[in-house]
């Protein structure tokens, strides 16, 4: 493998000059730069990423932890992170915690030992956890995506779930529905609780009552939505509309409704949350709340790089706003 000394010998310059040309660390005349670059090309020289990272104390690598889920929401956010890393000249190391607290901690340790420049964490098991190892790496920025209160210092990138839940329920109300149910995510999780709070705020604002049989807690997965709808249906008459707090559960609800011969939206209106890519290809296509997944990922990378550049030494919260996407699963009862 060729070295800088080999290039210097072939180009007839000093090793330090070769270093300045390759690392662009000092001005070198055009004529000498061309000789050095041609010599490097002739020798098939490849700079050592390890050597460079040791020299500048950066690995140009960001680590990311995610929780396994069948929900493509996570994959769409990771896509935003990976593409943003690529555009900024960074590599991404992705670790999957599979929802296991011990595996999460071991993965964090592994990434820190690999000297990543920053960490992006998207794990529900982080909520309320104290991660002592972060205190040993105070210079490594940590960004947490879309979870509740943390017991360690970090930037947060989050969707305004309270606003999103409100938008969903208000759209159903504005479409003439007064009997509105809600299938929530696990209410120990911040986003699930906030979406539910938004639903309640819209109903309270409209002076509508709540029926406990129409509020079912589930798990953010297809199976959870399927089972939650069946539990609701087994309790008695159904509402005219249901706010299902993510698209995956909404898919399960629609499947369960179809099995019972309930037509969507003629007999039951459904609105979801997330606007995952497949939502518009469902039959009927799903009315939902769009969560800016790509921008969530991009914002997380930008927050890490901002910290690395020393532009901010305070923990920041970046909140992205959801929007309504009207499709075909909500029937208007007006006029």
Walkthrough of the structure:
By secondary structure, this protein is of the alpha/beta class. It is 41% helix and 15% strand. The strands form three sheets. It has a six-stranded parallel β-sheet, sandwiched between helices. A four-stranded parallel β-sheet has the order 7-6-8-9, with helices on both faces. The chain is elongated. The N and C termini lie far apart (78 Å).
Can you lay out the helices and strands and say which pair or pack?
Elements lengths: L3 H8 L3 H9 L6 H13 L6 H8 L4 E6 L5 H16 L3 E6 L4 H13 L4 E5 L19 E4 L9 E5 L1 H14 L5 E5 L5 H16 L9 E3 L4 H13 L6 E4 L2 H13 L9 E3 L16 E3 L2 H16 L8 E4 L2 E3 L10
Parallel strand pairs: 1-2, 1-3, 3-4, 4-5, 5-11, 6-7, 6-8, 8-9
Antiparallel strand pairs: 10-12
Helix pairs in contact: 1-2, 1-3, 5-11, 7-8, 9-10
Mean of residue pLDDT values: 89
Global shape? elongated
Structural class: alpha/beta
Q: Give the strand line-up of the largest sheet.
A: 2-1-3-4-5-11
Please supply descriptive tags for the structure shown above.
335 residues; alpha/beta; six-stranded parallel sheet; four-stranded parallel sheet; 11 helices; 41% helix
Question: What's a concise summary of this model?
Answer:
The protein is of the alpha/beta class. The chain has helices at 4-11, 15-23, 30-42, 49-56, 72-87, 101-113, 161-174, 190-205, 222-234, 247-259, 293-308; strands at residues 61-66, 91-96, 118-122, 142-145, 155-159, 180-184, 215-217, 241-244, 269-271, 288-290, 317-320, 323-325.
């Amino acid at each position: 493998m060729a070295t800088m000394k080999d290039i210097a010998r072939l180009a007839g310059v000093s090793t330090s000059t070769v270093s300045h040309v390759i690392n662009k660390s000092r001005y070198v005349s055009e004529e000498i730069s061309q000789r050095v670059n041609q010599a490097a090309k002739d020798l098939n020289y490849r700079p050592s990423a390890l050597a460079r990272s040791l020299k500048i104390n950066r690995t140009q690598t960001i680590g990311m932890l995610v929780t396994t889920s069948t929900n493509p929401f996570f994959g769409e956010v990771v896509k935003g992170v990976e593409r943003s890393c690529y555009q900024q000249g960074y590599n991404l190391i992705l670790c999957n915690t599979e929802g296991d607290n011990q595996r999460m901690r071991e993965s964090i340790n592994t990434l820190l030992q690999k000297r990543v420049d920053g960490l992006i964490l998207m794990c529900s098991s982080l909520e309320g956890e104290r991660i002592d190892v972060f205190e040993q790496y105070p210079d490594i920025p940590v960004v947490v995506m879309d979870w509740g209160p943390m017991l360690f210092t970090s930037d947060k990138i989050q969707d305004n779930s309270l606003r999103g839940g409100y938008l969903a329920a208000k759209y159903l109300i504005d479409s003439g529905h007064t009997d509105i149910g809600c299938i929530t995510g696990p209410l120990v999780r911040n986003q699930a609780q906030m979406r539910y709070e938004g639903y309640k705020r819209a109903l309270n604002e409209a002076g509508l009552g709540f029926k406990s049989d129409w509020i079912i807690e589930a798990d953010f997965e297809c199976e959870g939505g399927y089972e939650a709808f069946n539990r609701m249906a087994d309790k008695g008459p159904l509402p005219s509309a249901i706010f299902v707090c993510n698209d995956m559960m909404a898919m399960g609800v629609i499947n369960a409704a179809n099995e019972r011969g309930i037509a969507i939206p003629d007999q039951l209106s459904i609105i979801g949350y997330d606007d995952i890519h497949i939502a518009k290809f469902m039959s009927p296509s799903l009315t939902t709340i769009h969560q800016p997944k790509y921008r969530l990922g991009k914002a997380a990378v930008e927050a890490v790089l901002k910290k690395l550049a020393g532009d901010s030494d305070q923990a920041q919260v970046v909140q992205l706003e959801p929007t309504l996407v009207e499709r075909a699963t909500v029937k208007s009862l007006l006029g």
